[in-house]
Design a protein that fits this description.
This protein is an alpha/beta fold. It has one domain: LigB-like (Protocatechuate 4,5-dioxygenase, Chain B, 3-Layer(aba) Sandwich), CATH 3.40.830. It is 36% helix and 22% strand. Helix 1 crosses helix 5, helix 4 crosses helix 6 and helix 6 packs parallel to helix 10. The two termini are 17 Å apart.
């Protein structure tokens, strides 16, 4: 049977992609962050799963605000990069894994977890930046992917608990998939940041670090955080952190934390990453 071997949480700040794409990672502003990411990349070089399920949010690139599903799973064989004003990053296309994607959909639907399906999703920086954080700038990605898009843009949003339960449903689906393959699952977005309004640029290290602690030690505590609390404590876009709950829900109760990084500032936001291995 298939098995989930580990989960990763990472911010998907578009500035990181721009720094890598334009050869700026050793400039003074970026050097410390990218040096801090070296152990993460080393871990990924020796722990490449057959498929990564990557939970992300679209930034009004593929989906418009008048048509936005709560949860959407990509079932395509290939996904192309896309993005906002700068245009798509010059990164390789991403290979899908339709058999597992459809199995997840059918398994979750049998548990009365309604999911939208998309066979032709283009994937913006919310998806491609995490891949580059893990794998650098290869000519082709070393793993297949399954996109899971979560609506954190257009209210009403799914609750933190609902995201965790989706992760649990994904974990059960993987465990019942008959192929002997290894699966990684990533939650992306966050941590604390706000891109507009009176609190633009707000970061809250105490809240962020408590959230990271909970991922390892008390994940259900993160499911009890309301949208209002996320936005009050972590800025409007800090609500993206609910997507990390999908990742954590798909893992076992007991995990080993093998990597953590927290760094500010990154384009007026907080950057965080964590890797959790199933025991």
């Amino acid at each position: 049977m298939a098995k989930v071997i580990a989960g990763m949480g990472t911010s998907h700040v578009p500035g990181l992609g721009a720094a890598m794409d334009n050869g700026k990672t050793q400039e003074t502003y970026w050097r410390q962050l990218f040096e801090g990411l070296q152990p993460l990349r080393a871990w990924h070089r020796t722990n490449v799963p057959d498929v990564n399920i990557i939970v992300y949010n679209d930034h009004a690139t593929e989906f418009s605000l008048d048509s936005y599903s709560t949860f959407t799973i990509g079932v395509g064989e290939t996904f192309k990069p896309a993005d906002e004003g700068w245009g798509p990053r010059q990164v390789p296309n991403m290979s899908g894994y339709p058999n597992l994607a459809w199995h997840i959909i059918e398994s979750a639907m049998a548990e009365e977890f309604d999911l939208a399906v998309n066979a032709s999703m283009d994937l913006d920086h919310g998806f491609t930046v995490p891949l580059s954080i893990a794998y650098g700038q290869p000519k082709e990605w070393p793993t297949s992917v399954i996109p899971v898009c979560v609506n954190v843009i257009q209210h009403p949003l799914p609750t933190a608990l609902r995201c965790y339960k989706l992760g649990q449903a994904i974990g059960r689906a993987v465990a019942s998939f008959p192929e002997q393959i290894n699966i990684g699952i990533w939650g992306t977005g966050g941590l604390s940041h706000q891109l507009g309004g009176e609190r633009v640029g707000v970061v809250n290290p105490d809240f962020d670090k408590k959230f990271l602690d909970n991922l390892s030690r008390d994940p259900l505590a993160n499911t009890r955080i309301s949208h209002t609390e996320f936005m009050r404590e972590a800025g409007c876009e800090g609500v993206e952190m609910i997507m990390w709950n999908v990742m954590r829900g798909a893992l076992e109760d007991d995990v080993d934390e093998v990597f953590r990084l927290y760094h500010i500032p990154v384009s007026a936001t907080a950057y965080g990453a964590i890797i959790l291995e199933n025991k």
